Each structure stands twice: as structure tokens, then as C-alpha cells.
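Friendly challenge for the regulars: who can give me the C-alpha cells for this chain first? No prize, just bragging rights.
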Amino acid sequence: MLTNHIGIKVKNIEESQKFYCDNLGFELDHKYDDDKRTLVFLKNENSVIELVYVKTSEYNSVMNGIVEHIAFTVDDIEKYTEDLMDRGVKFVTCHPMEIDDKLVIFFEGPSGEKLELVQHLI
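First reply, four minutes later:
Bragging rights claimed.
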């Protein structure tokens, strides 16, 4: 079984789309918009992320099932970290940490979602 996509509830759909495309190499795949919500599907060579913006206040306050974090595998964590820092991305941890034969570092997306870079050492 493979993951089809990951949905992230966002505060601002345009800001979030720009963040994932400009900083993490995603491209717009398709968009759906109706009276209640806007869905933006972004893809890269290995992943699909669905950005979910809810327009109705009764659903917008519901936080159940929100994704805790999303991890992206990279070949050079130092390079990606430096590039994201140069772009003004807010980091949760100051530098990559070694955990179980991998380096990891956490940062935030524009809606406060926690994101992680992972570099496997073996």
C-alpha cells in the first residue's frame, strides 16, 4: 500500500501554495473550489499534498484529525536547511539532530504545520 496524498488544513490557501511550491519544489496539479472549501493539490516526483481551506466557520473551527507533521526525505539536509533559512522559513529546531541513523530537523509551514527534513545516513 502506498500513500496517495496528505491533506493539510491551512489558514491561507495562496500563502500555503506559494510556500510549498517555492520552498519545497511542489507544483500545482489541480484545484477544486466551491462555496464551502478550496482544495489545492500539489505534487512533486514522489508526493502529493492536498491543501484544504475551509470557508464555512462551523467546519473551520474543527481540528480533529489534523496531521501532526510531514517528513520529506532529502539527500543533503545541510543544503536544504541553509536554503530554507535563507528564504526566512521558521525552524523549530536550530540544527539537524542525529536520531536512529538519520539526521532530522523541524520547521514550520505558513499555517503553523510542523514539517521535517530527514537525511538517511546509511
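The helical segments are 13-24, 57-60, 77-86. The chain has three helices and eight strands. Your move, everyone else.
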